[in-house]
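Service request form, structural biology core

Requester: graduate student, group of Dr. S.
Request type: structure prediction, single chain
Budget code: on file
Notes: please return the result as C-alpha cells.

Sequence provided:
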Amino acid sequence: MGKCFSPDWYFASAFDITPDFLLSGGIKAVVLDIDNTLVTYGDAEPTEKVIKWIRSLTDAGIKAAIASNNKEERVNIFNKKLGIFCISKSGKPSTRAVRAACAEFSVSPRNTAVIGDQIFTDVLCANRAGAVAILTVPIPYNENLFFRFKRSLEKPIINKFRKKHPEKCFPERNAGK
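Core staff response, request fulfilled:
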C-alpha cells in the first residue's frame, strides 16, 4: 500500500486539530472535506461548532478551503455562512482542489493540510499533491453498503498505521502526557 494511502496524522475529530498544532507543522492552509468530516453526511449547513472552528483557524492566519466531491449547489449552500474558498465536484483523489487552493492562497502543497475522513479520497488526494494528509474518524451515520464496503477496506490500512505510528494517532489525547 505504501505512502499513497497512509495519513500523516490521525485525529478523532477535525475539531481536535488546533491552529497551534497546524502552525507548529508549518501548515498555512487547510483543504477541508464536508461530509462525515465537518458535519454528518447530507447536513445542508455548517453547525456553529464548524463555524467557530474554521474561524479559529482563519483568526490564526491559516487559510481555509472546502473541497468536496458533491455538486456545486450542495457545496455553495454549505459554504454560504462560511464564505471561504471552495471547490465542488473536486474529483478527489484528483489533486485539482489542492492545486486550486494552493494557487488561491499562494502557498505550497507542503504547507497545506488536507483534512478528511476517507483514505481513498482525502488521504490519497493529499499524498498525490504533496500535502499533509490528516485523517479523521468519520462522524457516525447510517452508511449505505458502498460506504460500509469502503470503510472495511480502510480498516486494515488504519490499523497498520496505528501500530506503526502510535505517536501520530490521536495526538490531542496525548498532548498532556
